[in-house]
Amino acid sequence: MNPANTQIEEHPLVALLGLAVLAAVLMWLGGSPWTAPLEILVVFFHEASHALMTLVTGGKVVSMQVTVERGGEVLSAGGSRFLILSAGYLGSLLIGAALLVAGMRSRHDRAILAVVALFMALATVLFMRNLFGFGYGMAMAVALLAIAGFLPEQASDFSLRLIGVMSLLYVPRDIFSDTIERSQLQSDARMLAEEFGGGTWLWGGLWLLASLLICYLAVRWSLRPRRRSAALATQL
Fold this sequence. Notes:
Elements: E1 5-9, H1 12-29, H2 36-56, E2 60-66, E3 72-77, H3 81-105, H4 109-127, H5 131-150, H6 153-181, H7 188-196, H8 200-222, E4 227-231
Antiparallel strand pairs: 1-4, 2-3
Helix pairs in contact: 1-6, 2-3, 2-6, 3-6, 3-7, 3-8, 4-5, 4-6, 6-8, 7-8
């Protein structure tokens, strides 16, 4: 007989159900100690996005902080102030969306998770200036690297999906809470409005619309069937 291959597809409805269950559990546990490490991770991505945009636009990162209260800040000099302020919420969401799509579709989950861990370690060593933020960044980097290096492939796959779904749930809610529901807070949108005009609600509303579009596209791309090759026995 000739060699034969068959293609096994993950059914989109099964993948959708898995994401829905994961999202429901995270929403139910939201704000609890169980989800705190993930929520702080989203904040880490938020601040790291500010820092990265600072560097991309020619500025200098003075310091980065992440706190146990799920807050943070980046002090920078130079660069495009408009892009730096805009990068926080949307940057962290894009990172989460990319990780979700990777977890759902890629066959290189371990390598991707290892890259995330190394990115966190590098950002922590270079920019983090508060004790909690440094400890958290290094501990999470080591944990993700250990998952990628020592646990089965499925653990890396689940970790990518978990981080991705958490970002898709957390960021739009945070945008609405910080920039629209409580527009008086000193947020990225408020600073953008003070420096460039337009009002906190305007920038928050635009970011919220953009975040919902990113969430939609991430889920849509994630649910496209992923083909896996399974070689059948070959007889000569």
